[in-house]
Amino acid sequence: MTDEPTTEELPAAEEIEEIGEIGTTEENREPLEIEEAPATEELRAPVESLTEPVEPVSTHSSILDSVLYPDDEDGVPIKKLKRKFYEKELRRLQMELVKLQEWVKAEGVRIVVIFEGPDAAGKGGVIKRITERLNPRIARVAALGTATEREKTQWWFQRYVAQLPAAGEIVLFDRSWYNRALVEPVMGFCTEKQYQEFLRTAPEFERMLVRSGIILVKYWFSVSDDEQERRFRSRIKDPRKRWKLSPMDLESRSRWVEYSRAKDIMFAHTDIKQAPWYVVNADDKKRARLNTISHFLSIIPYKDLTPEEIDLPPRQENEGYVRPPMSDQTFVPEAY
After folding, report:
1. pLDDT digits over 246-264, tens only?
2. Strand order in the sheet with 139-142
3. Residue 33: alpha-carbon gap to chain centroid
4. Is the confidence at residue 167, as pLDDT, over 70?
5. pLDDT at 146 over 60
6. For 139, phi and psi rounded to 5 degrees?
7. Which of 74, 232, 261, 304 is the most exposed place for a label (fewest CB within 10 A)?
8. DSSP code string of 16-44
């Protein structure tokens, strides 16, 4: 599944009142009541199903056009970033992430970041660069596998709620509750009723998280057809990367249009003011990593709490301690 980022501004979530019971008839359709700011006019017609044409959906995004569309003033594509520049910028941004981490810990802040997008869009690479210099006890990744038989009987959001952060924690969801809006309806893993209920419930669930004090950030990674094809073939050729291509990934290629339609419907219902979707142009992996981290830092009001310098204390003097013989220990063979 691929898509092109759009730039029009979506209406605020509070204005979308007429979505109501998605997929119901005119006789029993009732508007979804939002206590915070009830709307006065209909802004978007309800979506009946994945087979119904849907109007292209725009997104909230504070990423500049020069980031989404990396061309120069003459429209010529910008060359790939030089390695030295990329590594220097990444080090600088990772230092800022450490400062943010210390602020989160000191202030008891809770942050949730959602990473969604088509297969081979580079979500994992961005998550890796965010976490590789952070304390795993503070910043952790939630990448849930297939639900168990017991979990399938639970409320859809239940197993994700268990992964939400406590005070002083950051949780990065490598795919999230949005499986119910993308993979599940396209592959037939949920009923139409379950799908429609998710579209009604997800915006309210996220508003609840925000009202509880959680900072919720959602990223959608967009990759072109040609670049996705190139990455798929690269994974096939390299035995070290083949594990990244699951049977589900291969099946999704034959359902590209359905996935694209599901993404448009998902944006129509869940791109809300309290938790907008931010679209990342992911054709260039290095730029996508720097742009995402830079944007993430720009929307979190953290303070500079750089860890203080540490004085290394002197080691305790040996006062009669005798080490056991080296032959009593089992060592790893030195093959290199």
Report:
1. 777 777 777 888 989 999 9
2. 139-142, 169-174, 110-116, 215-222, 277-281
3. 28
4. yes
5. yes
6. -110, 115
7. 74
8. --TT-STT--TTT--PPP-SSS--SS--S
* Between residues 57 and 231, the one the model is more confident about: 231
* Domain boundaries 13-48+57-307, CATH class: alpha beta
- The C-alpha atoms of residue 191 and residue 155 are separated, in whole angstroms, by 14
Distance CA 124, CA 289 (A): 10
8 Å CB contact between 172 and 131: yes
For residue 63, the model assigns a pLDDT of 40
Bridge partner list, 112: 171, 216
| First-to-final CA distance of the chain | 44
Virtual torsion, Cα 115, 117, 118, 120, nearest 10 deg: -40
Helix (H, G, I), strand (E, B) or coil at 246: coil
CA dist 131 and 289 (Å) reads: 12
The residue count for the chain:
336
**C-alpha radius of gyration, the chain, whole number:** 23
Q: What are phi and psi of 98, to 5 degrees?
A: -65, -40
What per-residue confidence (pLDDT) applies to 50?
Answer: 57
